[in-house]
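Work Package 3 (structural annotation) set out to generate three-dimensional models for the target panel prioritized at the project kickoff. During this period the team completed the workflow that converts sequence records into discrete structure tokens, so that structures can be stored uniformly alongside our sequence database. As a representative example, we reproduce one entry of 145 residues exactly as it appears in the project archive.
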Amino acid sequence: MGHFRAVLDTNVLLDILIGESRPSFKASARILQAARDGKMELFLTTQSIIDASYIMSRTPGSSASGFDAAVSYLLDSINVESLDYFDLRRALRDRTDDFEDDVLFAYAEAKGSDAIITSDKGFARRRKDGDILFLTPEELVSYSA
């Protein structure tokens, strides 16, 4: 699976940041390790980090220093990129009822991604077009085993 490319949805980032209390934490951590080992290429948007920061700031027991350390680790482990004008234009062109998901889908298409890793079951139902797979962290772990 050396050339498998996937985009992480914000909910998978939250699995990693919040930790073991999240149901998909173990699978998400395995995916991150697989990327660090060069077995797949992962992408994450800066917007997902910003959104996660907002959520984490309201999560009991989380700390800014813990968040900063985790984000620093991610920056050294996977591709973190900004969204651009064209991602937004594509999302507007192919609009569904969830603009945030539309933007992530447009970004994944632009990156030539094989999959979007998400725990959001509705994401896949809204986006039936295209060649991008929608996999939960657990599905990707079993797929790549």
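The domain at 5-144 is CATH 3.40.50.1010 (Rossmann fold).
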